[in-house]
Amino acid sequence: MDHRRLGRSGLHLSEITYGNWLTHGELVGREPALECIRAALDAGITTFDTADVYAQGAAEQVLGEALRPVRRSSVEIATKVCLPTGDGPNDRGLSRKHIMEACHASLTRLGTDYVDLYQAHRFDDGTPLDETLIAFDDLVRQGKVLYLGVSEWTAPQIRAALDLAGELGLRSRIVANQPQYNMLWRVIEPEVLPLCRDEGIGQVVFQPLAQGVLTGKYQPGRPAPEGSRAVSGGRGPRFIRRVLGGELLERVQGLRPLADAAGLSMAQLAVAWTLRQDGVSSAIIGATRPEQVTENAGAAGARLTGDVLAGIDAVLGDLVDRDPAKTAQMMAVKDTWSQAAG
């Protein structure tokens, strides 16, 4: 397993991060979840991503239990704050009250004194940005958080946070961004990626497999396979149906010869594609079975040739979304209070 620096910070992450959105505490029971995390460790993965809102805290608890026997300094734990963790008016957002209380609750569930990376899960336009940044900075000063990041923020929002942190004289600054990014969803490329490269902010991308669509397991004109996310319980089907479609599935099957030529599985091709992007520090994979972890981790260190990359663009063509405005649509607080996004 190769490791990469998180932007220009001194922190190194494994190229593959193991994440437990929509799995631990929701689609996957305790013992299978523990087996997946053990498989991740066996594959050399050292970076683990979760959030307080995933299964309303259960995902953090399972991750903390699985990592308890592991030397704490040998792994990097990332979690997030912003989305609702209760019914009260202060159980959400990026107010000082919610950030402080949420961080302490996450540390308890994870069974650790600190998290390596603490991320604002979405932008909160209902809280003054200086209040948010000062609260995060205080957590860093207290040693409860080592590095700060954001998720699904637009380029102007990231720019505003960087400028304000400088004006306030804060010691800590944003070093990570966690956006959705895959062969089909490239909306960070026009604005977010250039800004982050200039400012030394590393990308820790989620959904590199587009909810499993890029694995090729969903066949056009056929029912979704048993056990797949599209037919699972919980919120999985709601998310996967956003990207399922006849023409899309036909095009995805056209990627199979390219994967074969690269000596990779379809899943490995999709993950390796995200890792080829300058500025991407790690790609987050999820799994319901240990063998999925092992397969996806095999994308680490894979290098795609120019011919393969050109072939991918030719196959997917106009189905690729590059509209930077879609980042704003994805992260809008008013649209995400009611759902636990990745």
UniProtKB/TrEMBL annotation:
Which molecular function GO terms apply here?
Answer: oxidoreductase activity
NADP-dependent oxidoreductase domain mapped to chain residues: 16-315
What UniProt keywords apply to this chain's record, in alphabetical order? NADP, Oxidoreductase
Q: Which PANTHER family match?
A: HYPERKINETIC, ISOFORM M
Q: Which family does it belong to?
A: Belongs to the shaker potassium channel beta subunit family.
Protein's recorded name? Aldo/keto reductase
Biological source species: Actinoplanes awajinensis subsp. mycoplanecinus
